[in-house]
């Protein structure tokens, strides 16, 4: 065990979990991991995983998360999504099994985003991977960690290399000393986005909790049991949004339930004990499957803007079998206020919108009802029954909606449209600013605002209008820096750079030969 006692700050007792190092284990440098398997070789790793006994797992991923034009993610490592979900849960420890470089990157970015508890790590080398000793090390690690005084659950995650090598987390015990053991595989060659990796863990935990409920009585959540039928919410959202949804449900005699992914294990029981599920983020395929197995109806879209709120409240009314009068009463209480808020915070401009959070279509609806022109919406997530209503509403407004949009799709749309504002992922924002187009990062500046009900109406106008007002400044900066930082002029030079066109030509021929060889291998 690590000797850095008390080095990290924790929310609760689970923060005391330390990096796992057995007496006879050593951290393996990244370069010593199997060279043939890296996160850059998705198709080869998928073949290895199938040969290693994980063919059924990959088939499940292909059904739940169909890929787009690329065979590997264009966002950050997908495991960041499931890691972040686990690190936000009370009395939960997280253990990663993967290459040292991957674990370093994941722990770094998780702490960058505010996680203040340790991440367990079971290192490996080629020998322990091939002989099965890695699985034995993982099993020993979870036995060492399983302290019921500190933990309710331990989440063990296989990254790319252990998944490709067939490390069988399914053979771990379901519980040790009363501590639940949840093993998941989150490979970059099977999960297209880190948003969908959240669903992998949420679905696994809901499956475990559902089986506990079927087996007998389970503990009540610390917050108690609602006195009205509840609507569970699927998808991480701004903290004010569940409260706004609760206010809109109250006139219908309903209450808001837990938000999935949950913050503690017992909330999973309350989430499953709902009357209906709102798929606010529509990509939670595995979680939806568990709710449906529990007999719970699922309602798509969200109470966003005037039209979205009216349709969503009607959908909730249908799910609970409420009268038209009851639904109309709730609509009449909130729709006029939403319309007034939208009118009071107008947005006048052309905006392209893209992201990988899963809420892109909802944000586009809100922007359009605020007066903006949104010709293109790209989402890295796949098409889903729970996003159909949003996609149809946008299509009726003349919007091109691209599911499983690639970075190339998003940049091409932005370059062709030349909008007043581009909202997107980091590389899209970077490209937009290079073109002199005001740009905003979706995750930090758009997702971090309320979207639902009256609070959401008008919440985007201030930041959107302020960004679009900088268009003149962006053009001045583009003119000032024109020609700097591109191609052969990248960096700082004293004099002209030394060009080597012969090396480029040689490398181009190598790439061409490699592409031909790969194509020939596929035809065999």
Automatic annotation (TrEMBL):
<dbReference type="GO" id="GO:0030494">
    <property type="term" value="P:bacteriochlorophyll biosynthetic process"/>
</dbReference>
<keyword id="KW-0149">Chlorophyll biosynthesis</keyword>
<dbReference type="GO" id="GO:0016731">
    <property type="term" value="F:oxidoreductase activity, acting on iron-sulfur proteins as donors, NAD or NADP as acceptor"/>
</dbReference>
<keyword id="KW-0560">Oxidoreductase</keyword>
<dbReference type="InterPro" id="IPR010245">
    <property type="entry name" value="BchY"/>
</dbReference>
<dbReference type="GO" id="GO:0015979">
    <property type="term" value="P:photosynthesis"/>
</dbReference>
<protein>
    <submittedName>
        <fullName>Chlorophyllide a reductase subunit Y</fullName>
        <ecNumber>1.3.7.15</ecNumber>
    </submittedName>
</protein>
<dbReference type="InterPro" id="IPR016209">
    <property type="entry name" value="Protochlorophyllide_Rdtase"/>
</dbReference>
<dbReference type="GO" id="GO:0016020">
    <property type="term" value="C:membrane"/>
</dbReference>
<keyword id="KW-0602">Photosynthesis</keyword>
<feature type="domain" description="Nitrogenase/oxidoreductase component 1">
    <location>
        <begin position="77"/>
        <end position="467"/>
    </location>
</feature>
<comment type="pathway">
    <text>Porphyrin-containing compound metabolism; bacteriochlorophyll biosynthesis.</text>
</comment>
<dbReference type="InterPro" id="IPR000510">
    <property type="entry name" value="Nase/OxRdtase_comp1"/>
</dbReference>
<dbReference type="Pfam" id="PF00148">
    <property type="entry name" value="Oxidored_nitro"/>
</dbReference>
<dbReference type="InterPro" id="IPR050293">
    <property type="entry name" value="LIPOR_BchN/ChlN"/>
</dbReference>
<keyword id="KW-0077">Bacteriochlorophyll biosynthesis</keyword>
